[in-house]
Amino acid sequence: IAYSLGNFCTYSRFNLKGENGIAPIVKVYTNSEGEFLEGQIFPIVQLGEGGPVPDDQKRVIFKMKELTETDFPEAKITITESGKILLKK
């Protein structure tokens, strides 16, 4: 489940400072039965007017990795530093 992807492309009345300005685009691959195979996180940052742009610092990847490991230590996935989402072996 990927939470809070709704305010992806915004500015003006929204606070985009720090973690509020980072966002993921998540691509998920499943088999024909809908079972997870792998995924990829594409890191994005919102700097204000002009819309979101790729984040070379990959901040959202590191945040998602940290939160997954902290909040869901029993999760059956792992997130690499490059943003790959893989099933744990």
Could you characterize what this model shows?
The protein is α+β, with helices and mostly antiparallel strands and 89 residues long. 15% of the residues lie in helices and 34% in strands. It has one helix at 59-71, and strands spanning 22-30, 36-46, 52-54, 77-79, 84-87. Strands 1, 2, 3, 4 and 5 form a five-stranded antiparallel β-sheet that branches. The radius of gyration is 14 Å and the shape is elongated.
Order of helices and strands: EEEHEE
How confident is the prediction overall: mean pLDDT?
88
Q: How many beta-strand runs?
A: 5
Strand content: 25-35%
The whole-angstrom Rg is: 14 Å
Shape by Cα distribution: elongated
Uncertain residue ranges: none
The helix/strand class is alpha+beta
- Please bin the fraction of helical residues: 10-25%
Distance between the termini: 20 Å
User: With helices defined by DSSP (H or I, 4 residues minimum), what is the helix count?
Assistant: 1
Biggest β-sheet: count, sense, barrel?
Answer: 5 strands, antiparallel
Please name the defining characteristics of this protein.
alpha+beta, 1 helix, 89 residues, 5-stranded antiparallel beta sheet, elongated
Topology (elements, then pairings):
Layout: E1 22-30, E2 36-46, E3 52-54, H1 59-71, E4 77-79, E5 84-87
Antiparallel strand pairs: 1-2, 2-3, 2-5, 4-5
